[in-house]
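Aim 2, interim progress. The first record below pairs a target sequence with its structure tokens.
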Amino acid sequence: MRESVRAINDLADPSLANCRYASQRLGDILKSYTVYVDRILADTWGRLIANG
């Protein structure tokens, strides 16, 4: 499974481990692309799940 898809699928189960993994992946993306200041994932209620 592609890593980005896994990070999105982890939102279905926002356990601490899944949130940490998503934050790590977002951080990796942030390091690779200089156009981003920050990246976030939010659930359908607008709650912040992870940032990178």
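The second target in this work package is listed in the same format:
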Amino acid sequence: MEEPTTVRSSSRFHNFSRLNTGEQARVVAEFARLDESDRRTLQRLIERRDSPQMQIAPNFTINGKDYFVPMVTEEASVVPAASNGARLVAKSGGFTAGYTGSEMMGNIQITDVKDPMAVAVKLLAYKNLILVHANEASRHIVADDFAVEAVPRDGPGNMIAVNFTFHTADSMGANKINEMLERVGPMIRNVIGDNGRVNAGIMSNSSKNRLVMVGAKVLAEDLGGEEVAEKIARLSEFGSLYPDRAVTENKGIMNGVIGVLTAMDNDTRAEEAAAHKYAWQDGYYRSLSRWMLDNDGNLQGELTIPAQFGVIGGSVGIYIQSRIARRILSRNDVDNFHVGEFACIAGSAGLANNLAALWKIASEGIQAGHMRLFERQKNDLLR
């Protein structure tokens, strides 16, 4: 394998987007230790015009580590905004982020239950055997528990959900979870007998225990002064109190998250569904992020978001796009690149885009810059 001649150690790069495509690919290849073949592939991904091209957001520092972050999105302003937000945060030390772990859920629905308590008692008595049977279908994903819950409904008859928890390691896990649930369905049917009907088994995209939490600090002077910082904090408060504002703020967060997930060929619809469900977790829709002023008048930001991500499995690595993205994010150390690190990157991109949007709204307004980038993108594509 041919190695690049130099290795770049920092992701800081002013006006990176103004480089031509060959220079962009060269800079990223130097940083990520890509060989010449991968550098050429990256340049082709940056130059493609039949679908949204891969773009690179520099300036990210996450948990003390620098990243060039690959993103794929049709919207012209998303990647420059992510880079700009990351640059502001990097001045104060970068993002801090943590991942709660790869826990997923799945449900088996039982309908027409005659005696719910009897069904629950019997299923719990056979729990170990049911879990062993499920786990025979997978070497890497583990079903480690389930609970039995009554499902309120208006019509006649009782319904029960058997709610499984799975640990999916570095994968998102959907396909294998569905296989495991379908495998135990007949066994549960035999356990409950004629006391109910096993209707379906399917994974859940609810992700309350698989989260990424990101924090950031931005100095007021880097935003243009305390007045701008205060406007950002008040705008963020608006999103925490008013659902019609919150849904747009969350769209901006997802601009960053989904851009990263698309580059890695992850399931973006699953993440969108999980995120909006989490935003409504207490019965009131709120922004997933919050920016507040600290005692010195600087901004402190935080974001908590479901992390239905994977660095293996599904489509990851099948397409050249995610193979190159994974090498960039891991600096060509794919074997040691795990989903927790990837979750911290995607979450940080979401908070970076959120910060950049709030900053523009609170200062010059968001439309002028957005339309300027849109026109530049359109002219470039039509050339």
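Residues 103-204 form a domain with the Alpha-Beta Plaits fold (CATH 3.30.70.420). This observation will shape the mutagenesis plan for the next reporting period.
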